[in-house]
Amino acid sequence: MRLVWSRCGHALLVLWGALTLTFLALHLTRGSVVDAIVGNNTQVTPAVRAQIVQDYGLGRPLWQQYLSYLGRLLHGDLGTSYQLQTPVRAAIAEQLPPTLQLMGLATLLAVTTTLVVAVATARRPAWLRAPFALLEVAGVAVPQFWLAILLLTVFSFGLHWFPAFADGPAGLVLPAVALAVPMAGILTQLLRDGLERALEQPFATTARARGQRERGVLVRHALRHALPPALTIFGLLLGSMIGGAVVVEQVFSRPGIGSLLLTAVTGKDIPVVLGVVAVTATGYVAINLIVDLLYPLLDPRLKD
Amino acid sequence: MSTMLVVRDLSVTFGSGRHRVDAVRGISLTLRAGRCLAVVGESGSGKSVTARALLGLAGDHATVRAGALELDGTDLTRLGPRQWRRVRGRLIGLVPQAAMVALDPLRTVGREVAEPLRLHRAVPPADIGERVVELLTDTGVPEPRIRVRQRPGQLSGGQRQRVLIASAIACRPPLVIADEPTTALDVTVQAQILTLLDDLRRAGTAVLLISHDLAVVAQLADEIAVMRDGRIVEHGPAARVLTAPEHDYTRRLLDAVPGRGGPPAPPPSAPVVLRADGLVKTYPRPGRAAPLRAVDGVSLRLHAGETLGVVGESGSGKSTLARLVSAMVAPDAGSVELDGGPWHDLSERERRGRRTEIQTIYQDPLSSFDPRHTVEVILRHALQAGGERRRTVTDLLDLVGLEHGLARRRPALLSGGQQQRVAIARALAVRPRVIVCDEPVSALDVSVAAQVLRLLVGLQREHGLAYLFISHHLGVVREVSHRVLVLKDGRVVESGVTGEVLDAPSHPYTRSLLKAVPAMPPREAMR
């Protein structure tokens, strides 16, 4: 239980650091803060600018601004986008569901593929392993936008298996695959490596000598030893998936956080950029907190 | 009694062409129910490969051929993978070596012992829990109902070996293969495990014992087969092989068993080089109020040219004592003097200049070398550290009896004995007065261990070195030590001249240690 609290405290600390950095990013840039917030929108009246100074408390000392910034975050107020003419929170809330669907399906695909391929190819003859190993390296090495275009060309325009641009579940498949491939590539290599190392351990020999089948040694003994390192990397990859979502959403012309972020960055819509950063940082910290709390379940020795 | 195992002309090869290694070259064995056959040999003799081949687990790269391989009348050479699985664990139980790592550290003891029962459906699923407790009780695991829910990491080495035996005999196999079942265990625990295997044999199980330790084998075996380079060089009743060996190699192995000669003659009186008084070292124990008193009021004197043996079981404080006298850790109380000057209370900066006076050699020399350095670099660094101008790397190699050509190799490519010689050379490079030897031969084959011990004794005579010699092996300690210190729970329970302490012990603990040592006939009686 103490472990849980200390992990949670640690996660909050990281989150606080990330949010402080976004505050500093806005306030320590050159030029006026108001200009940064307004961005490329040139049709902002002096009245609106005065409103911004009022809202952000820009006349006050920096530490007061900082505290009120944290206070607004606590209430879920991420500011207003003067380009979209909406609160940032509403903009993100609107774009979050399609991205979560995409990342959810991609994660599911990646994890399933990893488990199946790693268990099926660990310590198997080269003719079975080599093709998969090649695909894994290719999956990691190929640029994601190119992979996305390739999938579109082959499975949508060529074979007509999946629609190219559609809102329904069928339209989710190809982008999810494009997003899942690099993750599956890295995780499969990692997991198989761990499995093979565990299969060399003396306890694996003991299990075989009891009459356990190779598959049984793999699933009942080796898997639990191989999972923790893969889980660590899984947490990190999941956090960085938002970068992949930017590319994939763009290629498949899907709505989502990625598209929102891209538009905001190109249009210098700083409130939206900072809002997306705050939301993804929170997600990232939450995911890694869950991963940390999963370890002791996999390896009970960590509890002692 | 029925014949349980027949092996005729078994050979195992690894690889092919130029990389082909013949690990086992045509051996034949028979073993009857209720008997114990010991296969004895040193590392690389092929004994463990034989054991694995009998389980059909020689490995993916091995080719196994046999004129006959019969278990209780069943021809094992004709078995497919599925049939082999029905043999393993049900008809043949394996007690593996390395008890510390042979159990899955992430699974509970109960599930490990239950695995063969589940796989072979030996008992109805509902009764498995009861049967596991019964097996642990039979093998002498204390508090079995608590243990089944614990993980191997929470058990001592001896308890883990008992758990392994429980899992090996769970389905009551008629043949048990015990591959070095007592390696890395204390003498007292070793004696208990051997008794357990002996009970199995008496109950009618055929036991195939694989070991490098003739003293262990002497306790249990009805017959002994001595293996060397994949062949059996001598085979016969245990009593005959141990007392009247016919083959030269067997004789050499027997000669190498330490502790069967008398202790060394006392050295001429010399000044004290290492002196410790009332040393105490405690470590906090998580979850418990009282700290662990690892070393508790130990005093000792070590004279130049003398060896002081330190014996005791795991956890008796031997290694902590070694770290205290070499000032790797600071004592909570007490003092250490080196060469008549202060030692433990110096600042690390002051101490560094005198570190050359006391050196340590470890049980596992390999992990004390930088794996990327060659022997030459390792020794040159040591010579530079000692400010040596006259002696060279070749001088050091000559000193420890290593060929000059080995200087260009990396330590990982050397044999265990050669690695330990390099470690000794490195210690000698700085011209120390005292060498702390922490289990220096415990990981070596008997004949190699004997050579390393001879080297240490020779160097002591030549250079007047003082050894603090730590070992759990009483035979080794007897062979080299002038005086002995017996440690139990961090305290000295007995000390004195080797012959007196080990031949006429006054403390019950020393007596129990000695009683547990596998007895071998004394050397003189053999000729």
TrEMBL record, chain A:
Membrane-spanning parts: 102-122, 134-158, 170-191, 230-252, 272-295
Segments forming domain ABC transmembrane type-1: 96-295
Keywords, sorted A to Z: Cell membrane, Membrane, Transmembrane, Transmembrane helix, Transport
GO cellular component, one term: plasma membrane
Cellular localization per UniProt: Cell membrane
Keyword Transmembrane among record annotations: yes
Membrane topology per record: Multi-pass membrane protein
Pfam families: BPD_transp_1
BP-aspect Gene Ontology terms: transmembrane transport
UniProt main location, coarse: membrane
Ion transport found in the keyword field: no
Gene3D superfamilies: MetI-like
Highest taxon above the source species: Bacteria
InterPro entries: MetI-like (IPR000515), MetI-like_sf (IPR035906)
PROSITE patterns in UniProt: ABC_TM1
Family: Belongs to the binding-protein-dependent transport system permease family.
Protein name as annotated: ABC transporter permease
Organism: Micromonospora wenchangensis
Lineage start: Bacteria, Bacillati, Actinomycetota, Actinomycetes, Micromonosporales
